[in-house]
Amino acid sequence: MNIRELGFDGWFAARAEDMDQEGLAPARVSAVDRGACLVSLGGPDIPAELSGRLWFQADSPDHLPCVGDFVAVRLYNAGQSAIIERVLPRRTFLRRRAAGDSSGTQMIAANIDMALLVQSCRYDFNPARLERYLVMAAEGGVEAAVLLTKTDLARPGELAPLVEALQGAAHAPVIPVSCVAEGGLDGVLPLLRPGRTFCLLGSSGVGKTTLLNRLLGREAFATGAVSATGEGTHTTTRRQLARLVSGALCIDTPGMRELGVAAGQDGLDAGFADVAELAAGCRYADCRHEGEPGCAVRAALDSGALCGRRFANYLKLRRETEHMALSGLEKRRKDKAFGKMAKAYKKQARGA
Ligand SMILES: Nc1nc2c(ncn2[C@@H]2O[C@H](COP(=O)(O)OP(=O)(O)OP(=O)(O)O)[C@@H](O)[C@H]2O)c(=O)[nH]1
Ligand SMILES: [Mg+2]
Ligand SMILES: [Zn+2]
Questions:
Q1: What share of the chain has pLDDT > 90, as a percent?
Q2: What residue's CA is closest to ligand 1, atom 32?
Q3: Distance between CA atoms of 94 and 82, rounded to whole angstroms?
Q4: Does 5 contact ligand 1 (Cβ within 6 A)?
């Protein structure tokens, strides 16, 4: 196997041209665990540390390597260990708002061709949550498909309305999946072309790891039982990239309790393309659809063309993104103040 089979295509190669002269090689981050990374150059995973310069130059955690990143590494220890010197530009990314920090963000994965948004038809079914995931994917330039899992547990006649409801929320393909029923993976298999990278996202217990194991053809990763209410037990604890039998790459992630979106207006518009399209017909270009005259969005709500639940969720996510932008400004102001203070202190120390 080589690095190309890990998804290192012409786009990345063009951004890594000077690597050779510096004695560096391209590698892909396959897992990150408390600051320690595992990378692959095409062969088995090897441990990798971040160079001092990389730590020093990163002025946000977003700039540090995350799973799925392509990086430039220097090998040592007869090729058994590596030092990460640079993170190559990301073609796409999945990023959320950090838990408990209104302006901080957290990278989930990089260089994803398609996000697989997983909901279980038994317990986890929730269109509003799906819309959140879709905004996150759109913000990072990632295509998305929805997997509705555990269809073997649905009663006859139950499945079709569920698929329809999700399709209404998603404006993305919805693929029923069962890891138990015969032929239950037929809908996903055609997606998994060699060299493409997928990322499984969803609540705990929906069956992400079970599906990954099926696609790997072995019980490579631990799965966990769900409670009587269908809730998972947070079995997967780290993000991990694996190579499927088909030659596609797939990142499994720990189930998320909540997803705070870290998006701007563009991501929001891409995730709610129907609302954005309607908004283009509003009388005022800066219409907020809050009762202004000539509002095409309100008209669509009144006629039933736009779903009220969906629009309410749009407003909720818009409030979140605006709040995040404001607290981001506040944070930068503080950082600036900190910088001034640090400079003044250094000046003083030099006796100037
Ligand atoms: N009946 C049925 N059960 C399934 C299916 N897929 C997964 N399960 C069961 O669902 C439970 C949870 O599966 P996991 O794969 O661990 O779920 P997960 O999404 O990885 O959960 P976390 O790692 O906690 O985020 C396990 O008991 C699986 O056996 C399915 O298609 N049908
Ligand atoms: Mg799991
Ligand atoms: Zn409007």
A1: 67
A2: 150
A3: 25
A4: no
Express the helix, strand and coil content of the chain in percent, nearest 5 each: 35, 20, 40
Q: Verify whether ligand 1 is closer than 6 Å to residue 210 (CB atom).
A: yes
Ligand 1 atom nearest to CA at 226: 11
Q: pLDDT value at position 330?
A: 60
Hey, whose CA ends up nearest to atom 1 of ligand 1? 150
Which residues, including other chains, have CB under 8 Å from residue 204's CB and lie 6 or more apart? 231, 232, 233, 234, 235, 254, 255, 256, 257
For residue 344, what pLDDT band results from cuts at 50, 70 and 90? low
Q: How far apart (Å, rounded) are the C-alpha atoms in residues 93 and 76?
A: 29
Considering the entire predicted model, what is its pTM? 0.90
The contacts of residue 222 (CB under 8 Å, 6+ apart) are 209, 235, 236
Q: Can you read off the two tokens belonging to residue 332?
A: 């930068």
Mean pLDDT, to the nearest integer, of 250-275?
Answer: 90
Nearest atom in ligand 1 to 184's CA:
31
pLDDT band at 337; cut points 50, 70, 90? low
Closest listed ligand to the CA of 178: 1
Residue 98 Cα to ligand 2 middle (Å): 20
CA distance 149 to 4: 31
More confident position, 268 or 228: 268
**CA-to-CA distance for 224 and 226, rounded, in angstroms?**
7
Instruction: Judge residue 297's burial from the number of C-beta atoms within 10 Å of its C-beta, 0-12 exposed, 13-18 middle, 19 or more buried.
Output: buried
Is 254 close to ligand 1, i.e. is its CB under 6 Å away?
Answer: yes
Q: Is 30 in the pocket of ligand 1 (CB under 6 A)?
A: no
State the Cα–Cα distance between residues 14 and 281, nearest whole angstrom. Answer: 41
The answer, yes or no, to whether residue 182 has pLDDT greater than 80, is: yes
**Residue 346 token pair:** 């250094």
- Least Cα distance to 205 among 124, 108, 151 occurs for 124
CA of 233, closest atom in ligand 1: 24
The two tokens of residue 60 are 């946000």
More confident residue, 266 or 332: 266
